[in-house]
């Protein structure tokens, strides 16, 4: 009888915890810009390239997750952007129209967002450039509490399969840019700085950012 | 300093600068599909495989034959040896010769305005860009300026030699591009507007007949592949019927609004990149006004008539490509120089400042369009240009020791980058057997290709052109 009660109690507790846990997960709500494409990118179904779709499953984040990056300071490997300003990365304007995107130099370049405090991160969403079907090479997302990214670096996404950017080879899928942006799972990693790399794209040698949004739980 | 030095040293400096701008770092920009296609034809001619004129999709023969002496001088004798620099030296040299010819053509305005006209054209953004581009335009322009200069000399001196020289240049124009008659029309319009003194020659009709015969002979020589392919003569005529049919059906693929060329000489902002030619355009407009109200400036009126009629013809035709703007450059340069030449002496300083400002803005635009963003789709001269990504292609094939397959609706400029390789095959549709050590498929066909691949492959992506992506499959051991 005691054993049965114990089992019942354990089961109830587990179900209860699961229920609470499920309640804590909510779909990430994104404010998507209007599509700038005429038509849809040709569907490519490859091992290394994601199938393009106008729909994607909800991305679940813990309840209480908020946008942490709005208006936060942005630095870059290219201190003098070719077009736009570094502030465009976190200014909330992701339309992709002229005057709303950042263009930085050729080759491997990065932009870095300082969230102001180390927080558990849920998702990082990036819109590189979405007025044309193109793939950005060696797209890498790293987070750290070290401003210089020399210690405590966690790589969340990496498409550099041949390690041409010398940050380690990655196996994540390439994707065609669209107005839907790319959601990178931050898996609750705690960090203050978010750094995004790219190495040109299939249209030109330059690197672009319309917007980057970092979601997480505010530091207490 | 002696007057000779004062006269020739500035011109020599301008010519050297023009050549430097046109040859510097010639192989940096990836090959455009049209350049690649023509370079392969030139390479086949160089390798002794001959040349026959194709009226369907190609222009005249001079460009290919002009590659030969340059390639020989650089020690290149096969398609595999032929380089981007070698083929692009041809338009670069022609573009420099055009600068010199423009100086001599503008001399009736005076030495200083002629130098200014040459300087303006030296720094004309489309002239620099398309003089570094392996297509026919700068060659056609040089021959057209040669014909105009020779014609002008004949008109003044009455010497048969100049009439024959004009005929040779006209023949070379026709052998370069079928659009040559448009320039003759524009030149006649310029002549009508210029109203020069009667010509010096006593035997005008005889000279004109000799000139025409010379033009026909020279053009015939090239179109018949120097007497080895007489069917080329008929094919040269077929160009007009073929193009006329496509033009009437609106099938050229280059249809644009009437104001397209005006936009290239005005102000454009695309994707944050600003390109303009406002300075030279405003100055040329001033020159046009001077030409209209001056009865003395014959050359200025002629340049105005030639340029306006050419603009009208090009704008009226629905077929428009940006490289045609190179032909408007000399007229605008002469008109701009004429405007500054008309500035009263007491405002000389202001005129000098204006010339400096225009030259400065032109040079900044040359830097942007020819050197900083030569293949950027926001550059109005980089027309449907190949992505720099394509430069990754050759090392991939070099590292491949087995068959290489390209399965794509569009393949150029890949055959140029893989010239000299014997293990490459091209398919427009998906074949039954897709396997190879390296398989390149267009994004549209990649799914079907992958379904037919046997064995283990990795895939990566290379841009052929903005918006056109290739999928690269590499077979794994």
UniProtKB/TrEMBL annotation, chain A:
The keyword Ribosomal protein does not apply. InterPro entries: FA58C, Galactose-bd-like_sf. It comes from Oleiharenicola lentus. This is Discoidin domain-containing protein. Keywords: Signal. Residues 1-22 form the signal peptide. Residues 54-217 form the F5/8 type C domain. Gene3D superfamilies: Galactose-binding domain-like (2.60.120.260). It comes from the Bacteria. Pfam families: F5_F8_type_C_2. PROSITE patterns: FA58C_3.
From TrEMBL, chain B:
It holds the Pfam family PMT_2. The chain crosses the membrane at residues 6-24, 89-107, 113-131, 138-155, 161-194, 206-226, 274-293, 300-319, 325-343. It is found in: Cell membrane. One of its GO terms (cellular component) is plasma membrane. It is a multi-pass membrane protein. GO terms for molecular function: pentosyltransferase activity. Residues 77-217 form the Glycosyltransferase RgtA/B/C/D-like domain. The keyword NADP does not apply. GO terms for biological process: lipopolysaccharide biosynthetic process. The keyword Transcription does not apply. Keywords: Cell membrane, Glycosyltransferase, Membrane, Transferase, Transmembrane, Transmembrane helix. InterPro entries: CHP03663, LipidA_mod_glycosyltrf_83, RgtA/B/C-like. This is TIGR03663 family protein.
């Amino acid at each position: 009888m005691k054993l049965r009660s114990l089992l019942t109690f354990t089961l109830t507790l587990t179900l209860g915890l699961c229920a609470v846990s499920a309640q804590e997960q909510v779909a990430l709500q994104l404010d998507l810009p209007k599509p700038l494409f005429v038509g849809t990118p040709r569907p490519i179904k490859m091992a290394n390239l994601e199938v393009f779709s106008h729909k994607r499953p909800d991305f679940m984040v813990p309840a209480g997750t908020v946008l942490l990056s709005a208006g936060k300071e942005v630095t870059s490997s290219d201190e003098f952007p070719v077009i736009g300003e570094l502030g465009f990365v976190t200014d909330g304007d992701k339309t992709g129209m002229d005057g709303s995107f950042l263009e930085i130099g050729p080759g491997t370049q990065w932009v870095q967002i300082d969230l102001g405090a180390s927080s558990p991160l849920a998702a990082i969403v990036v819109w590189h450039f979405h007025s044309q079907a193109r793939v950005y090479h060696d797209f890498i997302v790293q987070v750290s509490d070290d401003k210089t990214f020399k210690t405590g670096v966690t790589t969340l996404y990496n498409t550099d399969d041949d390690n041409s950017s010398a940050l380690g080879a990655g196996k994540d899928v390439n994707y065609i840019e669209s107005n839907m942006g790319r959601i990178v799972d931050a898996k609750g990693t705690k960090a203050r700085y978010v750094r995004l790399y790219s190495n040109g794209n299939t249209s030109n040698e330059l690197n672009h950012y319309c917007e980057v949004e970092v979601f997480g739980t505010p530091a207490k | 300093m002696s007057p000779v030095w004062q006269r020739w040293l500035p011109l020599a400096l301008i010519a050297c600068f023009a050549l430097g701008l046109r040859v510097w770092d010639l192989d940096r920009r990836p090959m455009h599909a049209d350049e690649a296609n023509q370079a392969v034809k030139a390479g086949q001619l160089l390798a002794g495989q001959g040349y026959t004129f194709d009226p369907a999709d190609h222009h005249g023969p001079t460009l290919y034959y002009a590659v030969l002496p340059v390639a020989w001088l650089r020690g290149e004798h096969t398609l595999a040896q032929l380089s981007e620099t070698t083929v692009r030296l041809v338009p670069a040299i022609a573009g420099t010769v055009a600068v010199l010819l423009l100086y001599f053509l503008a001399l009736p305005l005076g030495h200083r305005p002629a130098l200014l006209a040459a300087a303006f054209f030296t720094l004309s953004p489309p002239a620099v860009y398309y003089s570094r581009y392996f297509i026919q335009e700068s060659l056609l322009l040089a021959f057209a300026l040669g014909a105009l200069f020779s014609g002008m000399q004949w008109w003044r001196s009455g010497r048969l030699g100049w009439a024959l020289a004009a005929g040779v240049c006209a023949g070379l124009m026709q052998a370069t591009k079928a659009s040559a008659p448009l320039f003759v029309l524009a030149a006649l319009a310029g002549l009508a507007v210029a109203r020069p003194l009667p010509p010096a020659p006593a035997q005008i009709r005889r000279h004109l007949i000799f000139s025409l015969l010379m033009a026909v002979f020279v053009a015939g020589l090239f179109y018949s592949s120097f007497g080895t392919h007489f069917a080329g003569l008929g094919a040269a005529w077929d160009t007009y019927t073929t193009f006329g049919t496509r033009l009437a059906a609106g099938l050229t693929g280059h249809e644009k609004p009437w104001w397209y060329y005006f936009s290239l000489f005005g102000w454009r902002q695309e994707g944050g990149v600003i390109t303009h030619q406002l300075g030279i355009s405003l100055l040329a407009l001033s020159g046009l006004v001077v030409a209209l109200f001056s009865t003395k400036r014959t050359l200025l009126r002629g340049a105005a008539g030639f340029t306006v009629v050419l603009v009208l013809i090009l704008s009226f035709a629905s077929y428009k490509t940006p490289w045609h703007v190179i032909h408007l450059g000399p007229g605008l340069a002469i008109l701009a120089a004429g405007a500054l030449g008309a500035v009263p002496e007491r405002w000389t300083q202001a005129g000098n400042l204006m010339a400096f400002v225009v030259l400065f803005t032109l040079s900044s635009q040359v830097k942007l369009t020819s050197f900083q963003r030569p293949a950027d789709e926001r550059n109005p001269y980089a027309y449907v240009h190949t992505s720099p990504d394509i430069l990754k292609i050759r090392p991939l094939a070099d590292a491949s020791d087995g068959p290489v397959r390209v399965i794509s609706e569009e393949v150029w400029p890949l055959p140029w980058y893989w010239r000299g390789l014997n293990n490459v095959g091209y398919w427009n549709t998906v074949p039954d057997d897709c396997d190879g050590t390296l398989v390149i498929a267009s994004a549209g066909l990649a799914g079907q290709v992958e379904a037919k691949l046997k064995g283990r492959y990795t895939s990566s992506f290379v841009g052929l052109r903005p918006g056109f992506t290739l999928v690269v499959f590499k077979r794994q051991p």
